[in-house]
């Protein structure tokens, strides 16, 4: 942090990013089924960050959905591909059956 601003490498940083929703474009040109395509779209748009959201199943069970290995493999691959391309990654998720007034969430920012 630089005062009240985000910083990268000691300088003020303004995120120029977009959200990655599943499933993405069809046929799988982007989204979790094609992280390479997602990164390519971000680079063509001149973005420096992607936000990974909505990766939990809509019909998930709160006791097991956050631990679904297949989901995390896709999320991990998206994080790895974006990182390899030099993009900042943010991740946030809300359990699909959580009450709207106080949903449990996860959030993180990585360079």
Task: Outline the structure in words.
It is a single chain. This protein is of the alpha/beta class and 111 residues long. It has one domain (17-110). It contains two helices and six strands, in the order βββαβαββ. It has helices at 35-44, 69-84; strands at 7-8, 11-12, 17-20, 49-52, 88-94, 105-110. A four-stranded mixed sheet has the order 3-4-5-6, with helices on one face. Helix 1 (35-44) runs parallel beside helix 2 (69-84). The model is unreliable at 98-107 (pLDDT under 50).
Summarize the structure.
This protein is α/β, with parallel strands linked by helices. It contains two helices and six strands, in the order E-E-E-H-E-H-E-E.
Keywords:
alpha/beta, 111 residues
Question: Residue share in helices?
Answer: 10-25%
Largest sheet: 4 strands, mixed
The overall pLDDT average reads 78
Strand content: 15-25%
Q: SS-based structural class?
A: alpha/beta
Write the H/E string, N to C: EEEHEHEE
Domain tally = 1
Q: Please mark out the parts with pLDDT under 50 across 5 or more consecutive residues, or reply none.
A: 98-107
Distance between the termini: 13 Å
Strand line-up of the largest beta sheet = 3-4-5-6
Please tell me how large the radius of gyration is: 15 Å
Beta strand count:
6
- Number of helices, where a helix is a run of at least 4 consecutive DSSP H or I residues: 2
Shape: globular
